[in-house]
Amino acid sequence: MLGNLHYLLYPRSVAIVGASVKEHSVGRIIVENLLKLGFKGEIYPVNPKYSEVLGLKCYASLRDISGEIDVAVVAIPAPKVLGVLEDCGWKKVKHVVIVSSGFGELGELGRTLETRILEIAGRHGMRILGPNTTGILNLENGFTTAFTRIPENVRRGNVSLIVQTGVFAASLLRWIITCENLGLSKVIGLGNKLDIDEVDALNMLKDDEETEVIMMYIEGVKNGREFLKVAREVSREKPIVVVKSGKTKAGWEAARSHTGTLAGRDEIFDAVCRQAGIIRAVDFEDAVDYVKCLSMLPPPKSNSVGVLSYSGAGCVIAADAVEEWGLKLAALKPSTYSKISKLSPPYWSKSNPIDLGPILESEDAKGRVSKVLELVLEDGSVDSIVLIIPVVSGGEEPILWEVGGNISWYKRLISECKAKYPSKPIIVVVNGSKEAIEEAKEALESIGIPVFTSITRAVRALSKIYWWHSRRSV
Amino acid sequence: MLGNLHYLLYPRSVAIVGASVKEHSVGRIIVENLLKLGFKGEIYPVNPKYSEVLGLKCYASLRDISGEIDVAVVAIPAPKVLGVLEDCGWKKVKHVVIVSSGFGELGELGRTLETRILEIAGRHGMRILGPNTTGILNLENGFTTAFTRIPENVRRGNVSLIVQTGVFAASLLRWIITCENLGLSKVIGLGNKLDIDEVDALNMLKDDEETEVIMMYIEGVKNGREFLKVAREVSREKPIVVVKSGKTKAGWEAARSHTGTLAGRDEIFDAVCRQAGIIRAVDFEDAVDYVKCLSMLPPPKSNSVGVLSYSGAGCVIAADAVEEWGLKLAALKPSTYSKISKLSPPYWSKSNPIDLGPILESEDAKGRVSKVLELVLEDGSVDSIVLIIPVVSGGEEPILWEVGGNISWYKRLISECKAKYPSKPIIVVVNGSKEAIEEAKEALESIGIPVFTSITRAVRALSKIYWWHSRRSV
């Protein structure tokens, strides 16, 4: 139930005020994106300069359009926005997305403009998204108000983003699409949050069927109490990963000139996150680590981890990370140890983390590694697995042992384990050349196994999803 | 002056005990590596099973070799090592690299073996590297004892590694070679550190002309007082970046079974690092961030940073990071602001971080951005620059503005700035698709400009090199 914001994500018609044919202009890119994404609703370009924009009839004013308008996108200089808003009101437009900048972020004059926008919107019962935002991208129906080009190959999936920024969201999107095997559903850009804010956005995604994981970038929270209430509600069902900047004095000042946001004390926001069950990330790389695991993995039943590593150093680093991030190394059953001992040369460490080194040096290493992995998964004391392996790409020579880096063999093995133990999350850390890392990432993430190159980051991500799941059952 | 360890890096002859023709065997790979890297000294394979290994005459025993042996590499099972060591002594071998595992890391029996190794070595005045290590890789003369295949395309440069691990170092090496534009000089693997330890290794690199930056992975320190003394000395001249695991109880236990190391309390190691001027990194990604900056950049004269970003969010995130990591945003001169104002639409933020957004939207964006960057560099209050830009790859559409992602244009611009202001470090953060990021990294790092994708990580790395440089001048 999206309440009265339903049509912001699912409009039947959209008008673009400031539509343009000028190469690289905001008003052109918005129309291009809608056409490219195959939006099925009505598209009304509005600009007195043109009679046609990209093959669509162009209107001189909103008032000239005869059909109903669910969403108007306003992409014209700030000083002209008030007049257009009156037109919107006259046309009974439901929602207005103001992409233009030049408002509250610039000080007194801009804030006066914003007050007047709110007054007009209130008078006509319109909800405003922005100003100073890319607005909406909905991969379900191809609806977007984004003024940066949306790449063709956006992967659709269970992750939605709420972002308080414009152009940055665009490059963030490119990065997510090309570097990370994350599937997206909705992107909601908030900009200056004059009306619609992070609480509305969370409410929009709360009951959205496709959205299973929410990632947010915000510079501040408009109403802390309300945010806590709604975030707590949402994060019972769907994990929320937040990157919040405006943490320091220097950051607050920069935030004020970016989106006019008052950032507030960081310790308070931290406490809000803990109370609401929000996972806080330091930066986007960090956030994507968490989102990737949340999007792919089942909930770990406990904090008890089994670690297998091809190198002793990997064992040590993983053991440190497990303890530092509040997880614990599973105390494997004596019977598991004795079964592994039968598969390994005598000089193995007989402890968790399990150093696979000696086994990889043995005859029939593949068979033995498979059995060891299964023995650890089978052990009731283990509720998640971190597997650290070397990988080699096609042309490369193996790292030490033949089995060492065989990506397709590992893929088959892990895929079987996943099918057999669907409730135990498996995270894989790969070491090797860039090419091999990319191949392994593609191969394993395509079967829902998150891949990392840093042991520390893998374990930290596991700890965060465990925290979210454990908190949820409280 | 490497003292009596000189020939460990620069041997005139090397014997490989356990040399083999068996595919993927340690004894074969060591010989292969020496041939592939073009080592010019004598190579003596030793193995009673063969008369020839890879075209080289193979000897039944060390005692059958008539020439002098500077380094003997021992790659045979642990129980047979003692006999070979007596042979080494008889042959007056200077240094022995024991790559085999199966010693102190396995407990009592292994420790007894180690005691006997030390006794034999002491009696003959031989220095021992290892056991349980890949040993040496010297890109200057092609000498190596590594039992994992060294890729052909290792880049030679000013970074040397000291690593207390074997196979992990190998995949770390592949990663550094293929993912990072770092040039390497020496790699010293320590293994169980029975004799030669991190202090010896630091001393070896101290006066090494090619080595300008040292990166270490250790699981513990044998003699804390000595380590502090030598590290402090070395790090006055050359920065040392350390990843130390064995931080937690779980980590100590894993370290004991990996290299038999007693790890010691982490707070103490932390204090040692601070006192010695060592830069401590959390993991390898972190360490490479720092090493990259240290290897490429001039020392920042102060902690005063100028930030330029194409997006407002970038400004906020950078401002936070600058404050969090103990740097400060430069207070630009009023004249700099007024000059920038002349190049920018009125709605720019008039503060550092500088939001390039409005300028990028203007006519002649390229000319204006160049001038703004130069104005900031020219400002005496700025001692380093963080430049945040969007990048696009050949076939991709630009992000919003045409100038936005032009990698070759940015390369030219930054290269000119670098030439004009050689004493001010410039770090670049790029946002965009994977392809674009990689292109930008290649282009800019080839001219000595470190490239990051995370603003936080870029600023953190800058703060670490500033810390090292500032501490050095105390």
Helix content of chain A: 40-55%
Number of helices of chain A: 17
* Most extensive interface between two protein chains, with residue counts: A-B, 86 and 86 residues
Q: Approximately what portion of the residues of chain A adopt beta-strand conformation?
A: 15-25%
Structural class of chain A: alpha/beta
Oligomer: homodimer
Radius of gyration of chain A: 26 Å
| Strand order across the largest sheet of chain A | 9-8-11-10-12-13-14
Strand count, sense and closure of the main sheet of chain A? 7 strands, mixed
What is the CA-CA span between the terminal residues of chain A? 26 Å
Q: Could you report the average pLDDT of chain A, rounded to the nearest whole number?
A: 91
- Unreliable stretches of chain A (pLDDT < 50, length at least 5) are none
What's this entry about, in short?
2 copies of one chain form a homodimer. The first copy, chain A, is an alpha/beta fold and 474 residues long. Chain A contains 17 helices and 20 strands.
Please explain how this structure is put together.
The first copy, chain A, has 474 residues and is α/β, with parallel strands linked by helices. Helix content of chain A is 42%, strand content 18%. Chain A has 17 helices and 20 strands. In chain A, the strands form four sheets. The first copy, chain A, has a seven-stranded mixed β-sheet with strand order 9-8-11-10-12-13-14, sandwiched between helices. In chain A, strands 15, 16, 17, 18, 19 and 20 form a six-stranded parallel β-sheet that branches. In chain A, helix 11 links the parallel strand 15 and strand 16. The radius of gyration of chain A is 26 Å and the shape is elongated. The two termini of chain A are 26 Å apart. The model of chain A has no long low-confidence stretch (mean pLDDT 91). The interface between A and B is large, with 86 and 86 residues.
